[in-house]
Specification:
This protein has helices at about 15-20, 45; strands at about 50-55, 70-75, 85, 95, 100-110, 115, 120, 125, 130-135, 145-150, 165-170, 180-185, 195-200, 210-220, 220-225, 230-235, 250-260, 275-285, 295, 300, 305-310, 320, 330-335, 340, 345-350, 360-365, 375, 380-385, 390-395, 405, 415-420. It is mainly β.
């Protein structure tokens, strides 16, 4: 968990007035004009895709957001933007409401300071491509700054902005009728982020009701929409010859900031507490959208296959290496949600463990970080982001019957895997 760094989400500085002008320095093809209700929609594309992960925020009133999905980032150091809030892990600032919603609450405290919450799926849910959406009722008021956004999964090992940032929705309270969607990368970050804004077609405040904020994301393309209305697409041609850093897994972030150089600061018109109410967060992905994609064998660098021991389907069945034989115990589906699936269940780190040497097993798919895997395009390693460790055979021996574990990633041949697709 990070507690201090220059906040990726803006670093706006003196460029705040440019951003507030509504275009976020978008290219001419991505102007920030109000979008009529007859704008193109992405609803058909959504209907053709599968739901691969979601949080519906079902649970008792006053309970925490699911810790298998969400981390709390905390601190009151300004987050690089001279923000005023202290982010906490308290239920006063983030809790389920018992009606299927997550509520993030920004408060003015008795000492005159502000508290709020910032939650992320880092090392738990990290995903590439598909439709990423949330249905949200945003807060309102001068100096109030809600956001639904993403950072590259290799952050902070790869520093911002080289890690990439995708802002799915941002609103600054003095513009109640407008939301923004932006990308930040090397050579186009902070006030130079590339994106556009969407104005409510009737000029109403987005805080008056729930709205669905989404991106449709494919290799080399990100498209933003509100309530199914497309308002901008960014491709590598739009980043001015700078690196396109969005063909990799990202993690999700929800937060409500108070103050900062872009939104300005609360004044006598701002009322607290202010709440961002989130009905759901969902990831849809078409077949093959995830890294690798498809169904087939997963082979080690010596050609031997990843295998479910005895072709058993019970939870806890060990995963091993075995000579390739074409049976269903060696047929793995690479899901766009970051899972590897065989026999209807998922490749799982036992007990959600993070220590080197923790065994790997077959387990009922449950959306936890223990079942999330990313593939390093350079080394071919399969990394479990929750632990930060890589899949390898026990004892580093690539023999028939050798069981599997997680270990420190070292780029060696025994951690190299070939995926189907």
């Amino acid at each position: 968990m990070r507690t201090a760094y220059r906040s990726p989400r803006s670093l706006l500085g003196a460029a705040a007035s440019v951003l507030a002008a509504a275009a976020l320095l978008a290219p001419a093809s991505a102007s920030a004009a109000p979008v009529p209700e007859a704008a193109p929609t992405v609803q058909a594309a959504q209907a053709q895709s599968a739901l691969v992960w979601s949080d519906e925020f079902d649970g008792p009133a006053g309970s925490a957001p699911n810790p298998a999905h969400w981390n709390h980032e905390t601190g009151d150091h300004g987050w690089g933007n001279n923000e005023l809030q202290n982010y906490t892990a308290s239920r006063d600032n983030s809790a389920l409401d018992g009606d299927g919603n997550l509520v993030i609450t920004a408060r003015r405290e008795a000492d005159g300071g502000y508290t709020s919450a910032r939650i992320t799926t880092q090392n738990k849910i990290e995903h590439a491509y598909g439709r990423i959406e949330a249905r949200i009722k945003i807060p309102r008021g001068q100096g109030v700054w809600p956001a639904f956004w993403m950072l590259g999964a290799d952050f902070p090992d790869t520093p911002w902005p080289h890690s990439g940032e995708i802002d799915i929705m941002e609103n600054v309270g003095h513009e109640p009728h407008r939301v923004h969607g932006t990308v930040h990368g090397p050579g186009y970050s902070g006030g130079g982020g590339i994106g556009a804004s969407y104005t409510h077609p009737r000029g109403w405040s987005f805080a008056d009701d729930f709205h669905t904020f989404a991106i449709d994301w494919a290799p080399g393309s990100i498209t933003w929409s509100v309530d199914g209305n497309v308002y901008n697409t960014v491709t590598p041609a739009d980043v001015g010859g700078n690196p396109w850093v969005y063909d990799q897994p990202f993690f999700l972030i929800l937060n409500v900031a108070v103050g900062g150089e872009w939104p300005g600061y609360p004044d006598e018109t701002t009322r607290f507490p202010q709440q961002m109410v989130v009905d759901y967060v969902r990831i849809h992905g078409s077949e093959g959208n995830g890294p690798g994609g498809g169904t087939g064998t997963v082979t080690a660098s010596n050609g031997i296959c990843l295998d479910v021991a005895g072709a058993q389907t019970a939870d806890g069945t060990p995963i091993q290496l075995a000579h390739c034989n074409g049976n269903q115990a060696q047929q793995w589906t690479v899901g766009s949600d970051g899972t590897l699936r065989a026999l209807g269940k998922c490749l799982d780190v036992a007990g959600g463990g993070t220590a080197a040497g923790t065994r790997v097993q077959l387990w009922q798919c449950n959306g936890t970080g223990a079942q999330n895997w990313t593939r390093d395009g350079g080394t071919g390693a399969l990394r479990n982001p929750q632990s930060g460790r890589c899949l390898q055979p026990v004892g580093r021996v690539q023999n028939d019957g050798t069981r599997m574990e997680i270990a420190d990633c070292d780029g060696s041949a025994v951690q190299r895997w070939n995926l189907p697709g």
